[in-house]
Amino acid sequence: MAWSLALLFLFKGMVCLASVAFPISTTEPAGLIAGAGGLAVLGASTVWLLARRIPMLGFELLAACGTLVTSGLVAHASTHGGMMIAAFSYPWIAIYAAHFFPRRVVVAQGMLISVGFGLALLVGGLPHVGIYWAIVTVTIWSICIVLGHLSESLRRQADTDPLTGLLNRNGFLAAAVREHAIAQRSANRLTLAVLDLDGFKQINDLRGHVVGDRVLADLGRRWRERLRTGDILARHGGDEFVLLLPATSPESAAAVLDRLRVDDLPVTWSVGIAEWLGGESLGECIVRADAHLYSVKDALRLRDARQVHV
Questions:
Q1: Which of the listed residues 60, 82, 209, 290 has the most CB atoms within 10 Å of its CB?
Q2: How buried is residue 63: exposed, middle or buried, by Cβ count under 10 Å (0-12/13-18/19+)?
Q3: Architecture label for domain 169-309
């Protein structure tokens, strides 16, 4: 995301500087366009250097700033050069937003471009304002709708397990890192649970993989229905699932996990729980939850062995 935005700003800066070096007409406000070009190059450098420190909201605001600067150029440099800059800049801003941002942000960016460009044309006093505005607006909204829908669909496929409809590893990682950051800012506790199905291999061996897949799909659907809004459930691989419980202590997690019990499916599971601490990676927390899970499974095996012996 940072790499693309830096290239976008650099591209806009080069277009501005090129229009100054090779002006289309003698009425071009070279100083204004050169200043905007320098600002764009500075923005590209800043994004590149501070990429890891910029949150998602920061990228959204930076893209909006690019739109506002372009609209300002159209308003104050209402010449062929200003229109050329807008023709290059607006579509690429829309493409960037549609590719990286959620739909609500894409719509907001499209509205900002449409309104900003329309006001800029009115302030600049260019002839044929309606034609210019209609062409740009249709182009921008075509990009926002078509590419935005495609990008959202691809992101959903990339982050979703096709069998259960739950998040996969990639989707869970992104959601978990976001929740961990929120928990650190709000000083809320964050609990992670690892759920491992007991004896699931026997279901596949005795009843077939089709039945096993149906059990996994039904289990994922039932669990989603029983979880609270904000709880994050994912299939971590095979017959193992992970559950992130925001604003929940390990002691309180038991009540949430009890609601997951499904009596009419031929499967049981064991659970390992760990609190995700500040300064700890997701992998480290999962390792501790796995250790708790193995201790639970060992205790169950020991109990079963004692019952058989008796």
A1: 82
A2: buried
A3: 2-Layer Sandwich (3.30)
